[in-house]
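1st attempt posting a full record on here, be nice pls
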Amino acid sequence: MKRVTIVVIFVLCVMARPAFGYWIWTPESGKWENPKYAAKDTPEDQMAYAKKAYDAKNNKSALKELKKLLKYYPLSKEAPTAQYYVGRIMEDMDNLYEAYKAYQKVIDTYPYTELVDDVIEREYKIAEAFFSGKKIKIIGKWQVPAKDKAIEIFKAVADNAPYGKYADLAKLKAGLAYKDIRDYDSAILMFKDLIDRYPNSSVIDKARFQLAECSKLLSVKPEYDQTPTNLARREFEDFLKKHPDSEMAPDAKQVVDKLKSREAENAYETAKFYEARKAPESAVIYYKDIVQNYPDTEWAKKARERLNELEKK
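the predicted structure (as tokens):
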């Protein structure tokens, strides 16, 4: 009876070949498997096969073969490399957040791999891309800004290697990203953490400045927030650039001048804020900005006067 059962199974497998190919019994897994979908006999062979597809820029095939290696040989020495190349493929396909998740899995699953430094550098660059305006796909072709992803990845970079090459830079950028989305409390915590953890950092001065800046943004009245003014001025300047001969150009020019004056005034008030809090170095930065970028406003003259006074002191 047993021999008849085996013969029947063999016949059924042969008959099914046109649609499904041959299936064979594998003692290792205790299952019937189709050789077409099986991994190679060794992780070395499987990695070589996947890498060949990757080098040929056949991302779909390479990804499939890498996932086979990770499924069948998760504890092999080739496994970290396979997971790393999953991230590389996601990067090549411009799926940056998926690439980050693949890279982070290298860190989480294989923390002692020699690929850690390379992985962290790639994560940092992905975070920078999102910080600089790279959008993320949500549905179909719809894309949205991804400052939240930048924050998530910068924080992961700092956590992955607290005393690594990118740790202090990642914390600074995470703080700046929080500032950009107006989460000033979180930004302050990030800048404070950088200052406390990395007192000899090359960006310590920037962290202190940003800490003061965010503290100011929390304490001053909403009308001192220049963001709406800056955005409006840029819109009018863009209009003038694209339509210089329009009949509305003179009006647009007047609006730009008024907005510049308002920006200069706000910058002047910010400088005075720093002076009042015994931070003349920060005040000087704002006064110089006014003189350089708003020379035709009444505030430029006042800024020059304050600079002269501060220089005397």
